[in-house]
Amino acid sequence: MKKQYKPTRLRRIFNISDIYTVHYFEYEKNYAFKGESHDFWEIVYVDKGEIEIDMGDEKHVLSQGHAVFHQPNEYHNLRANGIVAPNLVIISFSCKSPAMDFFRKRILPISDIEKHLLATIVKEATRSFSSPLDNTFLEKLERRKEESLGSEQMISLSLEHLLISLHRNFDGIRRISSTLKQGPDQDLLGNVLSFLQENICEKLTFSDITKAANTSPTTLKTLFKEQVGEGVMTHFTKMKFAVAKTMIREGNYNISQIASHLGFDTIHLFSRRFKQIEGMSPTEYGRSVKVVFEEDTQSFLSK
């Protein structure tokens, strides 16, 4: 007997079929964009440095590793801070999904997975279009005569994946923060976290931290387990690696120098712990959006 299979049409939360621009900019430290508004969405990601942005009646400082969304018809401008020359990924696109309401005037941190999605979008844009990605005045992307198979679809899929990932991660952060208790324990936790941040380059022991907090080892262990979800020393190591990732991306120091700066006895210990926690080696992490984009672009253009 022949079975009567019935299909299930897959639901789409985000559907992106039109893209206006894909940019990777390396601005001067004093760059300023006078501003504009347009009837489509725009995402601005800071790959290096920081920028100051205006979003209508709101002003913000956008730091490395963060992205801002500009909604359709929202006036916006940006400027460098005059100290660090920023690198930016800017993508503008059309999406009519009601779920896009979530991104209105939203500033969000970008995870490693989302960073690689941005890299994929930039990479596939170089495969799809001949237009230079650093042209500020670009109004229309010009297709290559011979583009890579499916490259435009990869842009759409990666951008949709990025939007879903950002939405999900925000919900996760919100759930975690809503479970934190208020009261004296929060004061103790805040004091300990501030102490760890102030001594991020030191070789602190658990005993050092309990003495500085003027509390018992049991109290501190219980506090971190209940409110942070991990041990004190594990969290301190993760804080160190947050600094390490910034230093790696800035590219001013090699891995050995970064390890020494953050209080690790050897580069081997630093690299092993980094991979255990981050899931990749420090060198692998160093492949930022800019690095991935440049490597893939050079490989593609050399063919």
Question: Overview of this structure, please?
Answer:
- The protein is α+β, with helices and mostly antiparallel strands and 303 residues long.
- The protein has 2 domains: 18-177, Jelly Rolls (Sandwich), CATH 2.60.120.10; 184-285, Homeodomain-like (Arc Repressor Mutant, subunit A, Orthogonal Bundle).
- Helices cover 44% and strands 18% of the residues.
- The strands form 2 sheets. It has a 5-stranded antiparallel β-sheet with strand order 1-8-3-6-9, covered by helices on one side.
- Strand 4 and strand 5 form a beta hairpin.
- Helix 1 runs antiparallel to helix 2 and helix 1 packs parallel to helix 10.
Secondary-structure blueprint:
Blueprint (H helix, E strand, L loop, with lengths): L17 E9 L5 E5 L4 E8 L1 E6 L2 E6 L2 E5 L5 E5 L6 E8 L12 E3 L2 H17 L22 H28 L5 H15 L7 H8 L3 H11 L4 H19 L4 H7 L5 H12 L3 H4 L3 H13 L2
Antiparallel strand pairs: 1-8, 2-7, 3-6, 3-8, 4-5, 4-7, 6-9
Q: Please mark out the parts with pLDDT under 50 across 5 or more consecutive residues, or reply none.
A: 175-183
Strand content: 15-25%
Order of helices and strands: EEEEEEEEEHHHHHHHHHH
Helix content: 40-55%
The largest sheet is: 5 strands, antiparallel
Write down the domain tally.
Answer: 2
**Overall average residue pLDDT:** 85
CATH class placement of the largest domain? Mainly Beta
Distance between the termini: 54 Å
CATH superfamily of the largest domain: Jelly Rolls
What is the molecular shape? globular
Structural class: alpha+beta
And the CATH topology of the largest domain? Jelly Rolls
CATH architecture of the largest domain: Sandwich
Strands side by side in the biggest sheet: 1-8-3-6-9
How many beta strands in the DSSP annotation?
9
- Structural Rg: 22 Å
Number of helical runs? 10
